[in-house]
Write a structure and sequence with these properties.
Shape: elongated
Distance between the termini: 13 Å
Number of helices: 15
Oligomer: single chain
Number of strands: 2
Strand content: under 5%
Structural class: mainly alpha
Strand order of the largest sheet: 1-2
Helix content: 55-70%
Length: 288
């Protein structure tokens, strides 16, 4: 199917001089076949299209799992207590709030530690729950907690640039190569995040993660749809978005199953790592 479509498309674009050199009648050939007509002549969706569509659907889930990563990795950890030293200086605990969510603790930290973190000095997290969130494990001072509110935004800023960048890139090097680059970017930063407890590294990785999602969502959708016969394209396109939504919802399963956020990050990186070589061998180039 792939080579037939490519052959018909090249012949459709052949200029008159080339047709004449090949001894073919340009009037009978030029405009005779279009990709949609070739796909229609195959009579529907076959094994090739089913394999490609299912592959794109599974990849959509793998990438969509990462959209809500921050919802579980940067959640609030309320299992903490003021230390004796902290209580003597005015450390305050409020139920269902983290230490830096309380203004009095931020002032205490600023006045006595000159910008350093009060974690472990004025308050301590329960060791069982400390690694459940980057907000408790990275020990940022309260004055730097605004960075956590920027996490979700940076992901979608990356997605904005990713759609633009990968759209242009796929026009130059082909959709298959651009898709593999986006999946590779998703894989690399997925393995960087759990091993570097640095908020700046985390933010940078989430930006590139968002860019990879934007690129895949654009290219994967087109690859799944353009190989389908015209009468099935609306259904395939709708199903692609539906599967992406299912993938986002399924992230909750990973978030509950893997409590420490590092293990959660690794669990999401493993499927992308496995799918990278699979896609290299199974995903065809766009016939266009």
């Amino acid at each position: 199917l792939l080579y037939t479509i490519k052959f018909e498309f090249r012949r459709n674009r052949m200029d008159p001089d080339e047709e004449k050199d090949k001894g073919e009648d340009k009037i009978s050939l030029k405009g005779k076949y279009k990709i949609d007509e070739v796909l229609t002549q195959f009579g529907g969706i076959g094994k090739f299209q089913i394999r490609l569509i299912l592959l794109m659907f599974f990849l959509a889930c793998v990438v969509a799992w990462r959209i809500l990563f921050d919802l579980f990795a940067a959640k609030s950890v309320t299992q903490w207590e003021c230390t004796v030293q902290g209580l003597a200086l005015g450390c305050t605990k409020v139920e269902d709030k983290m230490p830096c969510d309380i203004a009095a603790n931020g002032e205490l930290e600023t006045n006595h530690l000159d910008g350093a973190s009060g974690s472990g000095i004025y308050w301590t997290f329960d060791e069982k729950y400390k690694d459940y969130s980057i907000r408790s494990s990275m020990d940022l001072p309260c004055s730097e907690y605004w960075r956590f509110s920027f996490i979700s935004s940076i992901y979608f800023i990356g997605a904005f640039f990713g759609v633009w960048m990968y759209g242009r890139l796929s026009d130059y090097i082909g959709r298959r190569k651009a898709l593999l680059i986006s999946l590779g970017m998703c894989t690399v930063q997925g393995w960087i995040i759990p091993f570097f407890r640095d908020i700046n590294v985390y933010l940078a990785c989430r930006f590139f993660d968002g860019a990879a999602f934007g690129g895949f969502f654009l290219i994967g959708f087109v690859l799944a749809v353009e190989y389908s016969p015209p009468k099935y394209r609306n259904s395939v396109g709708t199903a692609f978005h539906f599967v992406t939504s299912i993938g986002m919802a399924a992230a909750a399963i990973w978030g509950v199953a893997f409590k420490p956020w590092q293990w959660f990050a690794i669990a999401l990186a493993v499927p992308a790592t496995i799918m990278l070589p699979v896609c290299y061998f199974l995903i065809p180039e766009s016939p266009r």
